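Summary of Year 1 activities. Much of the first year was spent building the evaluation harness for sequence design. The harness presents a backbone, in tokenized form, and records the residue chosen at every position. We chose the following record to illustrate the format because it has been used consistently in internal testing since the harness was completed.
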């Protein structure tokens, strides 16, 4: 496995061990659907790792296992006791609650065991909305916001959980390119300021290169790590820069090879001789 980018390495491997570690993790659904096959992966503290792979290769499965939403069939997962929050493509806000109340609800769940007043939660929600540049929108209902704004509320709600590890499952997949670009900038700023560890699933190679310290490629099902690309490019990066485009091409080629390798047997006409080039 490749090390994180040089620029950030010292602050990320400071002797406390990885924030997330998967050791030979496998997942079988039902009796025989092998979704993940002995996946080993380490994510350093405050590291941003993007996960790429063909559709159905087990990316969401992997996140669910790390989040503790499901159990691995074999192998070990260690998050060092850190708090883990998850964010999905759909913001899943309660439509009948205001934006602020959606976040306050998360704060109430988080503050179980220590008492917080409604006023404290409201103030904290306002702070979180400021972090995602939505000050003044606390009194709106979700339907009054754009898709990008709703995702920022969902991000604020994740931050309300005071997580050390943020798991993101295609969080910007449904947004237009311009909105996505703005959210990349915001997420990068928040990640740096709060020293979050991020594991980010995407289908978009360019997005992975824009954001990641590393881009980890999973094979087609069953998912297993086939390549770990360090992204040694200075930040902030521009999605349309030549450097991002170059690495995007390299990774896309590797991903394409993997998808073709997997698709090949099914595409060959019955009786066709194997050319042995797979
Ligand atoms: N709860 C489940 N029960 C049975 N099979 C499942 C379950 N969840 C996922 N699978 C199967 O496991 C495999 C991996 O699914 P998963 O959703 O993790 O892939 P993915 O890489 O996230 O896909 P995509 O990129 O399309 O979102 C798929 O074949 C899927 O059909």
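For this record, the design step produced the sequence shown next.
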């Amino acid at each position: 496995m490749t090390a994180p980018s040089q620029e950030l390495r010292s602050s990320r491997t400071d002797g406390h061990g990885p924030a997330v570690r998967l050791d030979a993790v496998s997942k079988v659904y039902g009796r025989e659907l092998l979704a993940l096959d002995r996946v080993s992966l380490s994510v350093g503290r405050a590291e941003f790792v993007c996960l790429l792979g063909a559709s159905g290769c087990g990316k969401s499965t992997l996140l669910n296992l790390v989040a503790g939403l499901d159990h691995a069939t074999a192998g070990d997962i260690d998050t060092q006791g850190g708090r883990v929050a998850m964010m999905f493509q759909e913001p899943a806000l309660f439509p009948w609650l205001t934006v602020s109340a959606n976040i306050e609800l998360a704060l109430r769940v988080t503050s179980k065991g220590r008492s917080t007043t409604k006023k404290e939660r409201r103030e904290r929600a306002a702070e979180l909305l400021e972090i995602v540049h939505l000050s003044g929108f606390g009194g709106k209902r979700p339907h009054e916001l754009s898709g990008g704004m709703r995702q920022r509320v969902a991000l604020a709600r994740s931050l309300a959980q005071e997580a050390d590890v943020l798991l993101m499952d295609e969080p910007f997949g449904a947004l237009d390119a311009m909105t996505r670009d703005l959210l990349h900038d915001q997420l990068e700023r928040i990640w740096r300021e709060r020293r979050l560890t991020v594991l980010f699933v995407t289908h978009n190679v360019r997005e992975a290169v824009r954001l990641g310290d590393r881009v980890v490629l999973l094979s087609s099902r069953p998912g297993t790590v086939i390549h770990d690309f360090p992204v040694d490019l200075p930040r902030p990066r521009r999605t349309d820069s030549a450097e991002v485009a170059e690495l995007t091409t390299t990774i896309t080629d590797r991903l394409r090879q993997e998808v073709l390798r997997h698709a090949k047997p099914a595409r060959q006409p019955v009786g066709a001789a194997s050319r042995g080039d797979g």
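The beta strands are 20-29, 33-43, 48-52, 74-78, 84-87, 165-169, 197-201, 214-218, 225-230. Quantitative recovery figures across the full test set are reported in Table 2.
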